[in-house]
Amino acid sequence: MNIESRPLERTGPHEKFADYCLWDYPPPSPPAGKLRSSNLLWSAIASIGGAPHLVAACEAIRAGLGPFRTVYGVKQKDGLTSFEFYFYDYERLERRVSISRVLEILKPWVACSLPPLEGRPYFMFSIDLDEATSSGRKPLDTINMYIGNPGSSVSSGICYEQSAAGLRLANFYFFFDRRREMDDIVAKVACSAHHDLRTFDPSSVLRPELLNCEVVVVANKKFNDGVYFSRLPIDPLIGFLKREAFHPDIIAFAERHRDELDHMLYDVGVDYIVEGRSVKVTKSAFYGLL
User: Fold this and answer.
1) Does the structure show a pLDDT above 90 at 277?
2) Structure pTM?
3) Which helix (H) or strand (E) element contains residue 176?
């Protein structure tokens, strides 16, 4: 089926509403018969030309793990759209959603020679998929593995990149309640080795329209920092898509179906660098459930 003619996916009686950590939330308005967030993923894939192998891989993931068990990220960088998929199982070593299981599901489409590290206490992992990877033209050469950070007074996680070269520390993530911990959010954004605190204004990153959220995540990465805004209403999402110059077809879909998407909350994020007194966004993303 041509993805542009794909029927819209609508909510059913056993719908799940969860953020990009797979933490449940109550829908802010009645959801019956409205659209699932998966429609935004299909719209994004259509905007790059359809990518039939990627669509088949996504459908295999959903069939293999069940609906609402996978988080997708639609990323925009240098004018290009890409896709990352996140898999959670907070049971750690007793997990059912494992790297091994997902790679087995994807075996007809995705080639990966990396050994699954199942003895590690990861609670989440992610992979980047595109048409080349999903058609076997390019191997999957990186898996991102996330573990906890016991002993920290702030909820946090650590990301490692697995590649042919082995494991490499990639990112630290820190979770803050936007209502109760705003001072800590500002302090964490300000405390970075990547910018000059004498000229950096945290409000240039913590934009007011995105602070209508419930959770802010601040990330320290190898070459830049990142900040994520979790559980936003639909209108700030649409404003974010426009400001970050996502593909016009994605924006048009969200605007056209705004009243059928307003029963969900959304997660967005940016990676950024600071050049002098200016913040430059190097990557932006929004997230949903498959």
Assistant:
1) no
2) 0.95
3) strand 166-177
